[in-house]
Structure formats: C-alpha cells, structure tokens
Design goal:
It contains five helices and five strands. With about 140 residues, the chain is an alpha+beta fold. Helix 1 packs across helix 3 and helix 2 packs across helix 3.
Length: about 140
C-alpha cells in the first residue's frame, strides 16, 4: 500500500463530512494525487481504517456499494430521490429510537443505521421555481 493513502482518505473524509463516497469514488479521487495507484491499495487502506474504527461504512438499501464516512457520533442520513445526494442529519434520534427498541424487544442493540429518503430542499426549491415560471 502506498504511503499516505490512509492519511489522504482520512483527510478527504474529514474535509467534507457531507461527502459519502464509495470505494470507487475514493479511488478516482486518490489517483489524482497518487498516479498509478492500484484499487487494491485503496481497498486495503479502507479495510485498515475500518478495523481501526477511524471510518464507518454503511450501505443504503437502494445501492450495491458501501459508502464511507469519518467515524463520529452516530447519526441518521437523508438521501434525495431526485439528485441522489446524501446528507447527514445532525440530530441524535438514534439514541431515542435505540432505547425504545431495546425496551420493547428486550434486545441489546449495538449499532443501527437509519436513512430517510425524500426530496432535498435544493431540489424542492428548483421544482417550485420551475412551476412558478410556468405559471407566469
């Protein structure tokens, strides 16, 4: 594995916490800085960062590939059905849902991933503006 690949992945994910790239997207980004980089090197770096608990992987139900983000407090996500962008929802709803689910089921929940799907405010505003222009 090339030196600096793990660090660069951490830098990329830290710089933009709303960016949730797949391994392929990370590879494409990293080859700009490390020409000739092998996909296997990126995959090994990702695997090591996951094992070190520095990044988290999650998979959305409508996608085949895992996405990655910097490890931080657990939070839900929102995926826009129009533009496909994934947003972090900075609300600690997972804790409340976890406690209710544990009380109801008597299970111990170790982790969960919640994703909401809908239309983001940017896409919604574009649609409203297009309707207003049409009506004028």
């Amino acid at each position: 594995m090339k030196r600096g690949v793990k660090e660069e992945i951490l830098n990329l994910l830290s710089e933009n916490r709303e960016w949730h790239p797949t391994a392929k997207i990370l590879f494409e980004e990293l080859t700009r800085k490390f020409p000739g980089l092998a996909f296997s090197s990126v995959y090994r770096a990702i695997d090591n960062l996951l094992k070190e608990s520095k990044i988290r992987a999650f998979k959305l139900e409508d996608e085949e590939e895992r996405r990655f983000e910097i490890m931080e407090r657990s939070h839900p996500h929102f995926k826009c059905k129009v533009c496909g962008k994934i947003y972090n929802i900075d609300v600690d709803l997972n804790t409340a849902f976890k406690e209710i689910a544990e009380l109801h089921t008597h299970h111990i929940i170790l982790e969960a991933h919640v994703t909401y799907y809908g239309i983001c405010s940017n896409c919604f505003n574009k649609k409203v503006q297009a309707l207003v222009r049409k009506m004028s």
